[in-house]
């Protein structure tokens, strides 16, 4: 069946004729679908699923609507309004909304499924709901949205006269009305990011952009009516406006030929209305509106809406019969397109639509682009501003640069203006607009959005712009020089000696700064932060998130590297260097090699060799069998971990306890050789002067029992090694991430199996290797149990473990398998309030 709505009218005249024709047909005859009525009466409950809301349609882009009210327009004559639940792909969360939609029978080829619905009002933009959420129109006359579990998400909270019905008006306004038909609540009074024709924005209310096209959450822009004008702001602390159109109330009163006292003006409220062909501001007093200004808009030929978008533009869209077309950009920001706060990102300078980063005389390297391929994402300071180093803040002049708007409130001279910024840590940039030779207006900016290029001849004023940058303290001994003047001669001799010492130290230090290991073979190389940023392509590919900070993949020449960015560094540079020397001097085939490091005022990074097969946990906890490791490989990995640990514990010049042995810290190279990573870092991070561990460190599930009470030694690693061995053999985690308190962990399970003599039950029983290697597995489990002894004195040394694994020694026969599960050190009753720093 072909229906008239498939025809596209050639001329507007024909269209209106057709419209009349269509409207004269009873809808039940023209369409086979029963659309919901635009009016609902009390009481009603709708649950968000297809069974209870039968009018559902899925569009080509995957968005789905479930409408509870529909204000119908015949297909082909502009979109209809719907009210109900709507989702976009992948459709796991819904908004309760009013939307424009194309209607029709989805199974009918004439229905245009590519015409995606457009949301114009949302109840729950902050908190989308799931399938089976409900919307209820209650007896006391409220509209309430509840999540599927019954929790309250949103309510109209209307009070006053009891409500009897709900109507979706022709304008798209969702209305709750009382028995007299009077409006008690309306969606038009609570706009989100969109205004419809006939809708107003009242003084004090905001029209807020969405975060992005795909994310309905409130974004950073808002349009608002204040008592003196219409403003558009970008949210910051404090918000900065980028558009302003002030009211001339005196003039408006004169124009309106009314007699209003200044008292009445104070009592009045301003609003701006989206009308047919204009965006007009009014002052309302005593239920009369007087016109303040009009911004003219294209006259509507079909449906229109106005939306504050995620780029800060306020645009009008019109329906052209097939899709929405942008008709007007309502805010005429001065001087041009560049005057929007995010057009070039933070610190980006916009010039005729092109973005660049500030560069000045102080040095060319003070800013870098966040993404070389997307200059409009903005720029970031090479060295972040630090309030602790405020004495090294400098202002970098930006010639021919201006800002999108100014809220000047201070007249002074340029020097005082700059000084005020330098003295205030929160000031990030300063603009000075020259008025006469000596004076001008000063504007301090606490957060720098996009900047823009300008020509003073064009804008008609002269401006000086500066952005604040961070310089680094120079390594010098000036302070001592200065004090020497004020001290007597005898003291002077001492001071001179001291000075010589200091200078020597400084020279030595400067050499160290350069590269303490320069020319020492096998020692880690020093890199600059910039080099590593480039090597990692601006830290774009994250390999993982370790307990000490994130790890990124990088490339030095053709060699792949892994760069670990250490965070929470409580230490000074010298301690860091000392530890880097220690770690860098350790070489063993089963330890991940440290290639280099970076240390400056703000960054501590370590550069390691790249291990192509990633960490062991990805291999042993695989759910599917494909790609799982053979028994031979697993055995080899266990032996290699043991060798690496034996080296750290017994063969290094300085004994090193790892303190976070777990599969995530065992890395595999392309031949599945195992290497231990992160060794030496526990000490680096939080051992204080007295060499006592200040926090529980390590990972839940791998912690030895003595963490609660006694001194921590390398024996804690042996316990963790025991856990890792069990995990490798069983293919199971000792403690699952979200395992509830008190449920059985792997060690407890093992203890029970030992009692019944069925140790091999813990081995993944789908594993075919078990038939072939059962006795080897039993031996390895026995070894693990030896390592898991509660009494750390009873655990073997790592060298003994290696001997057992190489077949040169027997596992010491423990009288009982006294393995112990130490989940209880995380009990709430525990006196230590442990913070497992790297728990994942
Ligand atoms: C359906 O809409 C799309 C764009 O939204 C348009 O390209 C297409 O021509 C329309 N189809 C019909 C039959 O109107
Ligand atoms: C929604 O509720 C219906 C009826 O109670 C139930 O059959 C369905 O499984 C629920 N859907 C979800 C996703 O919970
Ligand atoms: C309605 O009232 C509840 C509880 O008093 C409150 O949490 C909620 O923010 C209110 N909702 C609106 C839209 O004002
Ligand atoms: C939506 O944006 C908000 C705020 O910008 C953000 O917190 C949230 O994670 C985003 N949601 C999605 C699904 O991207
Ligand atoms: C308001 O308009 C009148 C006449 O157009 C003008 O004289 C006056 O300066 C204006 N006031 C403001 C505050 O702009
Ligand atoms: C306006 O009102 C004042 C008193 O409020 C009165 O003196 C004056 O004559 C009135 N003017 C006109 C034009 O009505
Ligand atoms: C201001 O408005 C309030 C209520 O809206 C009214 O009671 C009051 O008399 C008004 N004042 C003036 C000066 O109009
Ligand atoms: C408000 O308007 C009404 C009728 O338009 C009028 O009778 C009344 O005097 C007005 N009040 C004020 C304070 O202007
Ligand atoms: C100028 O405005 C800023 C922020 O609004 C405020 O902190 C500052 O005190 C003002 N300065 C003067 C001189 O009013
Ligand atoms: C500059 O302007 C300020 C006021 O804006 C005034 O006080 C001062 O005298 C002027 N200086 C000169 C040199 O004109
Ligand atoms: C600034 O603009 C002027 C012309 O308006 C030009 O002569 C000058 O070279 C520009 N300065 C810089 C640093 O671009
Ligand atoms: C109008 C519409 O498409 N209704 C559908 C809603 O979902 C049910 C169940 O999937 C369908 O049977 C209806 O045809």
So, CATH architecture of the largest domain?
A: Orthogonal Bundle
Q: Alpha-carbon distance between the termini?
A: 61 Å
Please tally the β strands and state the result: 44
Fourth-level CATH superfamily of the largest domain = Transferase(Phosphotransferase) domain 1
Question: Mind sketching the topology for me?
Answer:
Elements: H1 12-23, H2 27-30, E1 39-41, E2 44-47, E3 56-58, E4 64-71, E5 80-87, E6 95-101, E7 118-122, E8 134-137, E9 143-146, E10 152-155, E11 163-168, E12 174-178, E13 183-186, E14 194-196, E15 200-202, E16 206-212, E17 215-226, E18 229-234, E19 240-246, H3 249-256, H4 262-266, E20 269-275, E21 278-285, E22 288-296, E23 304-308, E24 314-319, E25 324-329, E26 349-351, E27 354-356, E28 367-369, E29 379-381, E30 393-397, E31 401-403, E32 410-412, H5 414-423, E33 429-434, E34 440-445, E35 451-453, H6 456-459, E36 463-470, H7 478-484, H8 489-514, E37 525-526, H9 529-535, E38 542-546, E39 549-556, E40 559-565, H10 573-584, E41 594-599, E42 604-609, H11 617-620, H12 631-651, E43 666-668, E44 674-676, H13 681-686, H14 715-730, H15 746-756, H16 769-787, H17 798-805
Parallel strand pairs: 26-35, 37-41
Antiparallel strand pairs: 1-11, 2-8, 3-4, 4-5, 5-6, 6-7, 8-9, 9-10, 11-12, 12-13, 14-23, 15-20, 16-17, 17-18, 18-19, 20-21, 21-22, 23-24, 24-25, 26-27, 28-29, 30-36, 31-35, 32-34, 33-34, 33-36, 38-39, 39-40, 40-42, 41-42, 43-44
Helix pairs in contact: 12-14, 12-17, 14-16
The structure holds 2-acetamido-2-deoxy-beta-D-glucopyranose (NAG) (12 copies).
Biased composition (Low complexity): 829-840
Family: Belongs to the protein kinase superfamily. Ser/Thr protein kinase family.
Domain Bulb-type lectin: 56-189
């Amino acid at each position: 069946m072909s229906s008239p709505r498939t025809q596209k009218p050639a001329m507007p005249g024909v269209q209106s004729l057709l419209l009349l024709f269509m409207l004269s047909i009873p809808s039940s005859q023209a369409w086979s679908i029963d659309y919901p009525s635009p009016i609902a009466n009390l009481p009603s409950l709708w649950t968000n699923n297809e069974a209870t809301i039968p009018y559902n349609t899925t569009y080509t882009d995957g968005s789905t609507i479930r409408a509870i009210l529909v204000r119908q327009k015949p297909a082909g004559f502009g979109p209809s309004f719907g009210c109900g639940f709507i989702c976009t792909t992948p459709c796991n969360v819904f908004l309760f909304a009013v939307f424009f939609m194309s209607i029709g029978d989805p199974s009918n080829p004439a229905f245009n499924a590519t015409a995606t619905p457009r949301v114009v009002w949302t109840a729950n933009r902050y908190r989308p709901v799931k399938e089976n959420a409900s919307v209820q129109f209650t007896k006391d006359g409220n509209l309430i949205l509840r999540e599927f579990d019954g929790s309250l998400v949103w309510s109209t909270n209307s009070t006053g006269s009891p409500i009897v019905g709900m109507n979706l008006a022709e304008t798209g306004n969702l209305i709750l009305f009382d028995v007299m038909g009077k409006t008690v609540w309306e969606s038009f009074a609570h706009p989100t990011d969109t205004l419809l024709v006939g809708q107003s924005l009242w003084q004090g209310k905001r029209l807020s952009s969405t975060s992005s096209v795909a994310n309905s959450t409130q974004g950073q822009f808002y349009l608002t009516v204040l008592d003196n004008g219409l403003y558009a702001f970008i949210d910051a602390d404090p918000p900065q406006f980028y558009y302003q159109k002030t009211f001339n109330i005196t003039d408006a009163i004169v124009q309106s030929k009314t007699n209003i006292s200044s008292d009445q003006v104070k009592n009045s409220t301003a609003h701006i209305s989206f009308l047919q062909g204009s965006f007009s501001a009014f002052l309302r007093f005593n239920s009369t509106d007087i016109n303040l200004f009009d911004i003219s808009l294209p006259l509507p030929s079909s449906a229109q809406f106005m939306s504050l978008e995620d780029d800060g533009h306020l645009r009008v869209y019109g329906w052209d019969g097939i899709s929405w077309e942008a008709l007007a950009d309502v805010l005429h920001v001065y001087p041009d397109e560049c005057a929007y706060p995010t057009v070039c990102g933070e610190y980006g300078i916009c010039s005729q639509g092109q973005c660049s980063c500030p560069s000045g005389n102080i040095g060319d390297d003070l800013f870098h682009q966040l993404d070389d391929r997307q200059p409009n994402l903005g720029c970031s300071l090479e060295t972040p501003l630090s309030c602790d180093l405020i004495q090294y803040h400098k202002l970098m002049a930006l010639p021919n640069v201006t800002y999108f708007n100014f809220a000047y409130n201070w007249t002074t001279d340029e020097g005082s203006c700059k000084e005020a910024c330098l003295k205030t840590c929160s000031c990030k940039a300063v603009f000075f607009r020259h008025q006469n030779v000596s004076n001008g207006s000063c504007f301090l900016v606490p957060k720098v959005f996009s900047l823009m290029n300008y020509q003073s001849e064009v804008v008609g004023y002269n401006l000086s712009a500066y952005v604040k940058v961070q310089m680094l303290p120079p390594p010098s001994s000036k302070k001592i020089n200065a004090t020497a003047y004020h001290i007597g001669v005898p003291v002077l001799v001492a001071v001179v000696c001291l000075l010589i010492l200091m200078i020597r130290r400084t020279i030595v230090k400067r050499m160290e700064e350069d590269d303490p290991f320069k020319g020492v073979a096998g020692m880690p190389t020093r890199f600059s932060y910039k080099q590593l940023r480039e090597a990692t392509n601006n830290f774009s590919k994250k390999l993982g998130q370790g307990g000490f900070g994130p790890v990124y993949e990088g490339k030095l020449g053709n060699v792949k590297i892994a760069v670990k960015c250490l965070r929470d560094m409580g230490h000074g540079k010298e301690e860091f260097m000392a530890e880097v020397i220690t770690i860098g001097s350790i070489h063993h085939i089963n330890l991940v090699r440290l290639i280099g490091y970076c240390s400056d005022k703000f960054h501590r990074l370590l550069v390691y060799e790249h291990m192509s097969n990633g960490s062991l946990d990805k291999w042993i906890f695989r759910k599917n069998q494909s790609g799982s490791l053979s028994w031979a490989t697993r055995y080899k990995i266990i032996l290699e971990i043991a060798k690496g640990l034996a080296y750290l514990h017994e063969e290094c010049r300085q004994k090193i306890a790892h303190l976070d042995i777990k599969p995530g810290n065992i890395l595999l190279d392309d031949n599945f050789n195992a290497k231990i990573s992160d060794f030496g870092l526990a000490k680096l991070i939080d051992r204080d002067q007295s060499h006592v561990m200040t926090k529980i460190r390590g990972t839940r599930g791998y912690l030895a029992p003595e963490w609660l009470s006694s001194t921590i030694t390398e024996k804690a690693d042996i316990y963790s090694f025991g856990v890792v061995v069990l995990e490798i053999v069983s293919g199971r985690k000792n403690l699952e991430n979200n395992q509830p308190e008190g449920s059985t962990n792997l060690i407890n399970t093992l203890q029970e199996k030992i009692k019944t003599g069925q140790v091999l039950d813990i081995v993944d029983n789908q594993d075919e290797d078990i038939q072939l290697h059962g006795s080897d597995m039993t031996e390895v489990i026995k070894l693990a149990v030896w390592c898991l002894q509660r009494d750390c004195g009873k655990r073997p040394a790592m060298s003994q473990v290696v001997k057992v694994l190489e077949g040169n020694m027997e596992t010491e026969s423990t009288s009982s398998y006294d393995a112990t599960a130490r989940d209880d050190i995380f009990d709430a009753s525990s006196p230590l309030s442990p913070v497992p720093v790297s728990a994942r």
